[in-house]
Every structure is written in C-alpha cells, then in structure tokens.
Amino acid sequence: MRQNKTRKALIIITPLLVLSILVAVSALKRHSDIISSSQHEANWYILQLTKEYAEFNYQLRSYQGNLSDYNDMMLQYEILWSRFKTILSNSAIIHLHLYEGALEQIQQHFDLIKAFEPRLVSLAHDPDPQIIHELVDTSRNQYENLVLFVNNKFRLTSGDLKRRVEATEKIEIIIHFMLVVTLILGGALFYTLVSESRLMRRLAMYDSLTGVHNRLWLNQKLDQLTENNEPFRFYLIDLDGFKQINDTLGHQAGDELLVEVAKRLSCLNAAHYRVARMGGDEFAIIEKLQADPVSSLDDVLMDAFKAPAYYAKEFHAISASIGASEFPKHAKTVSHLLQQADFAMYEVKQQGKNGMIHYSTRQAEAAENSPMKTQTLAQELIPPANLPAK
Questions:
Q1: Going along the chain, which residue ranges are E strands?
Q2: What value does the CA radius of gyration of the chain take, rounded to a whole number of Å?
Q3: Which tens digits make up the pLDDT trace of 355-376?
Q4: Given 156, 223, 228, 344, which is the most exposed site by the fewest CB atoms within 10 A?
C-alpha cells in the first residue's frame, strides 16, 4: 500500500516539478533579457545626457569667446535640463535602480545644473566675464565627474550589474541542472512503472506456485490461435492419484509434486509447445503443428512421467492420464476442443490410468455421453484465479 502511494505521489509530483522548472527557466530567461535590455536602454539615456552636457559646455565656452549668442547657450541649457528630467522621471522604466547610487548621483548633478539658472539668467542683462568664467570651470568639472561616474557604473563589467548578471546565470545553470535531474527521475519513474506493469502482467499470466502459464493465459492463447485459424494440438494432463497424495502426505507434498511436474513439462525435448497449469492437478500443453509434421509430443510427454518424483522427502512413482485433441482437424471451437481432450483423458482413466489417448471422430457419439466435468471444463477456464492444489 505504501509503495502504491509513493508511486502515485511520484506520478503527480514529477510532471509538476518538470513544469515548474520549465516555467522558472522561462521566467529567469525573461529576467536575464530584461537586465540585458535595460542595460542597453540605460546606457542610451546616459549617453544622450553626457552628449547634451558636452554640447552645453561647448555652447558656454563659445558664448564666453563671443562665438555664439546668449539664446543658443540658453537653448542648450534647457535641452540639458530636459534630459535630466527625462531620466529621473523614467528611472523605473530604464531600471536605474539596478545601478547602486546612479539615481542619487544623477540627481546631485541635476541640482548643480539647476543652481546655474540664476547666474545664467543674469547674463542676459549683465554678461559679467567673471561669472561666465566660473560657470565654465564649474560646468566642466561637473561634466568630467559625471563622465567618470558613468564610465565606471554603466559598463557591463561594473560591480552592480555584473553581480546581477552572474547571479542570474548561476541560477539559470542550477535550474537547468535541476531540470536534468528531474528528467532523469522521470525516466527512472517511467522505467519503474513499465517494469512494474510487466511484473503485474507476468503475475496475472503465470501460476504463482509452479512458474508456468496459468489458466488466464491459456484461455487467451486458445482464443488467439482459433481466431487466427492456426492448427495446433491440445494436451490435457491430469495427475493420477493426486488427491490421495494430498490426503495422506499433506498439501505441502502435493505442491512439491506440482512444481516437479511443471519443471519436467517445461523442459521437454521438443519445439513449438507451451505449458500451462489449469488448476489443481491439471496441466495443459499447446503444440503448434508445422506444415512438415515431425514427431509429436506423445513419446517425450509420456517419458516425462517415467522417472520417480521427489516429494515428501523421498522418491515416488508418478503417472498421468493424458487426453489430446486437434484444432481444426477435430474441433472447430475452443469449447469443443476442451470437451474432446477431456473425454479422451477420461477414457484413459477408465482404462486404468497412466496413458494417452487422442480424440478421434469415431468417439463423437461417446463424447456426447461424457461426464459432467466434460461439459463444464470450458466454463472453468474463464476465471483467472489459480485453484488450490487438491
């Protein structure tokens, strides 16, 4: 019961784990792409800022040297102002939070730029060379500091971004490793389920005591052969005196005899035959008939019971009564085949046991008067359960 619960849990958990890892890998990939794209986007905004800052310094120096007028210089100042505002207003969009201290540094430079405004406005009425000189020096120093900060902070190998990218890559590797492990576990689970399925099928189709095929397998095999119209011979084997063995020596001795008989029947010196235990002390053999018939199983089958069998701690003589019939020569259906083989086996019992008789057409009339066991044998084949040894 515990194994069944564990198997069911694995069947549920394994695909869910695989799905979860796939989703996590996909999300991590998107996160990695966002970091990469945000790095490019942030670089573009910062590049535009430094470009406009450099242009403002140029216009300021040109104004100082009377190479440009006041309006051109103020226009560039307003453009630079708008660049700072754009970056600070859209900091979440361009992911500046990924860069430690970037927002604070840019805000600080913006405050310094805003501090220029009163002096720049005063130049419209009084272009004092001293004020212009101070503005040029201050702006140049601020620009150089900004460029130095940008070059250090916004390159791919910078500490902040590099650590995030490396962490993302490591997590992605770990998740892929987990995925591989999960796939291996899933494969192991699949193999276990297949092996268990084969084992269950074997348990369903084989007799647990003797290891040969059971009644369920025999029933299906007979149906298959008759449906395909394949010619075969059917032997019904009943051990002589088996009830007396159980009654006098015990069921353990009877089981030992059944195991020994099953071994002998499974090792006959012949080809194209299969053995099954029908239940109790009855066995069956199916022999496929070839186009060029060779010697049948008759002789080797009777020889299998000549040697004494060891059970109940000593050797005992054994024998069997065997009836045989052929499809489609004598029987056209499974039911008739079983009735004919059973009737032939019953004839052996009537004649003193320890022998074999093949059903023939001249026995048809006698078959109609066979005992009740003959009429019900086909029905007894239907249940798959093994009968206890008699």
A1: 232-239, 273-279, 282-288, 309-311, 314-316, 320-327, 355-358
A2: 48
A3: 999 998 665 555 455 554 444 4
A4: 228
Return d(Cα 178, Cα 184) in angstroms, integer: 10
Q: How many residues does the chain have?
A: 390
Structural domain 215-380, CATH architecture:
2-Layer Sandwich (3.30)
- In the chain, where are the structural domains located? 2-171, 215-380
User: Quick one: CA dihedral 265, 267, 272, 274, positive or negative?
Assistant: positive
**Are the C-beta atoms of residues 205 and 276 closer than 8 Å to each other?**
no
Query: 15: cis peptide before it, omega within 30°?
Result: no
For the stretch 179-228, pLDDT in tens is: 777 777 777 777 777 777 777 777 788 998 999 999 999 999 999 999 99
Write out the two tokens for 45: 């905004």
- CB–CB of 161/37 below 8 Å? no
pTM for the predicted model, two decimal places: 0.53
Specify whether the CB–CB gap between 186 and 14 falls below 8 A. yes
- Enter the tokens of residue 163: 């650590």
Q: Are strands 282-288 and 273-279 parallel, antiparallel or unpaired?
A: antiparallel
Question: Taking the CB of residue 4, how many other CB atoms lie within 10 A of it?
Answer: 9
